[in-house]
């Protein structure tokens, strides 16, 4: 059985092989959250950036979070080692290698331009580094990918507009805009106009909502941002009418089990609501969010819920189907991936 060092989810070897072999898309991945401590150290040395850790072990020891903000403080500090185009390329290639090993066929990568442009890193270097890695990943691994430009919600809407303006020359290379960072106190309503502007430019829309924020934020994401999917959405379960609406609208939720556990959105993985979401008819998917910080890539997230909640192969395959139907891929590509799942499932 192949296990990453962080994988503590020991499954029967055949179930493990099923999870890895299952064709899947990853829809909720912050590329800055895939910065492994080893690469953080290498980039810190290459770029002469001081980091407040003595060793890789020291970094990992700092990854104990009691909420989203605890994590974000460390995540933004870690991103300070990313300075030039090659850094963004190397970061994304490291992610694609892990994704390939996990059976990912398509990945939609969120990136936070403001985390970099506010430190003086040109937008062009961030996006060109990512794009060159995406092209290499397709050539080497056959993994397709798309970019989601995420606005930092703790900053102003004006700053989000400035970021959208910087992205103008690359709009044909960006699939969607997203909304991330500190949720509580920064409701979707704060960004209604910039999301309308992005939509008018032909971009798809996604937003973190209901991770720590209340169900009202999920309502706002639907009503005011016109989202195509919801990132996390856990707290929607507190509102029966909202669940019915998400089901009726076939809204994809990009659920992140290990993240939910590490950020105390759930106290125990054994209480994770993924199978409840599926039973309610929600289009839940399984994703890694910030895998370097939360202890595992996408297959580990499948393993974690399979082990903690006893998810059946059929339930895991349903999540993989949702990952393609909820993607921003063209219909023909979605159909091809769904057919690959159907071919894989009876074989396994
Ligand atoms: N940025 C990176 N990961 C995030 C998460 N889980 N929630 C909000 N913003 C984020
Ligand atoms: Zn996220």
What would you note in describing this structure?
This protein is an alpha/beta fold and 348 residues long. The chain has one domain: Alpha-Beta Barrel (TIM Barrel). The protein contains 17 helices and eight strands. The protein has an eight-stranded parallel beta sheet. α5 packs parallel to α7 and α16 packs antiparallel against α17. It is globular. Bound molecules: adenine (ADE) and zinc ion (ZN). Zinc ion binds next to β1.
A few lines on this structure:
This protein has 348 residues and is α/β, with parallel strands linked by helices. It has 17 helices and 8 strands. The chain has helices at residues 13-21, 37-46, 56-61, 68-78, 85-101, 113-117, 123-141, 157-167, 192-200, 215-223, 240-248, 257-262, 274-280, 291-294, 298-309, 313-325, 331-347, and strands at 24-30, 104-111, 144-152, 176-180, 204-209, 229-232, 252-255, 283-286.
Largest sheet: 8 strands, parallel
Give the strand order of the largest sheet, numbering strands 1, 2, ... along the chain.
Answer: 1-2-3-4-5-6-7-8
Query: In percent, how much strand structure appears in the residues?
Result: 5-15%
Under the CATH scheme, the architecture is Alpha-Beta Barrel
Order of helices and strands: HEHHHHEHHEHEHEHEHEHHEHHHH
- Looking at the structure, the CATH topology is TIM Barrel
What is the CATH superfamily classification? Metal-dependent hydrolases
Helix content: 40-55%
Shape: globular
Radius of gyration, Cα only, in angstroms?
Answer: 19 Å
Derived from helix and strand composition plus strand pairing, the structural class reads alpha/beta
């Amino acid at each position: 059985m192949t296990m990453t060092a962080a994988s503590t989810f020991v499954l029967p070897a055949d179930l493990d092989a099923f999870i890895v072999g299952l064709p899947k898309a990853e829809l909720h991945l912050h590329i800055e959250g895939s910065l492994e401590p080893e690469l953080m150290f290498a980039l810190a040395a290459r770029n002469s950036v001081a980091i407040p850790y003595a060793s890789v072990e020291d970094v990992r020891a700092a990854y104990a979070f009691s909420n989203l903000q605890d994590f974000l403080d460390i995540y933004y500090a870690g991103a300070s080692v990313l300075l030039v185009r090659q850094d963004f390329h190397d970061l994304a290639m490291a992610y694609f290698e892990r994704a390939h090993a996990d059976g990912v066929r398509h990945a939609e990568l969120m990136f936070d331009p403001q985390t970099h442009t506010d430190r003086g890193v040109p937008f062009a270097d961030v996006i060109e580094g990512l794009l060159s890695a995406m092209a290499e990943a397709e050539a080497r691994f056959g993994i397709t990918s798309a970019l989601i430009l995420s606005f930092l919600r703790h900053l102003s809407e004006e700053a989000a507009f400035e970021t959208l303006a910087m992205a103008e020359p690359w709009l044909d290379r960006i699939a969607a805009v997203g909304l991330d960072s500190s949720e509580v106190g920064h409701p979707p309503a704060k960004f209604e106009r910039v999301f309308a502007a992005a939509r008018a430019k032909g971009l798809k829309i996604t937003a973190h909502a209901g991770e720590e924020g209340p169900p009202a934020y999920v309502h706002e994401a639907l009503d005011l941002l016109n989202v195509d999917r919801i990132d996390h959405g856990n707290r929607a379960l507190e509102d029966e009418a909202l669940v019915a609406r998400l089901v009726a609208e076939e809204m994809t939720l990009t659920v992140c089990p290990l993240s939910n556990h590490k950020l105390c959105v759930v106290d125990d993985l054994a209480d994770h609501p993924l199978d409840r979401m599926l039973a309610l008819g929600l289009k839940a998917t399984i994703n890694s969010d910030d895998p370097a910080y939360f202890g595992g890539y996408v297959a580990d997230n499948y393993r974690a819920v399979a082990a903690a909640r006893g998810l059946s192969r059929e339930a895991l395959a349903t999540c993989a189907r949702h990952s393609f139907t909820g993607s921003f891929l063209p219909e023909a590509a979605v159909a091809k991936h769904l057919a690959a799942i159907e071919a894989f499932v009876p074989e396994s």
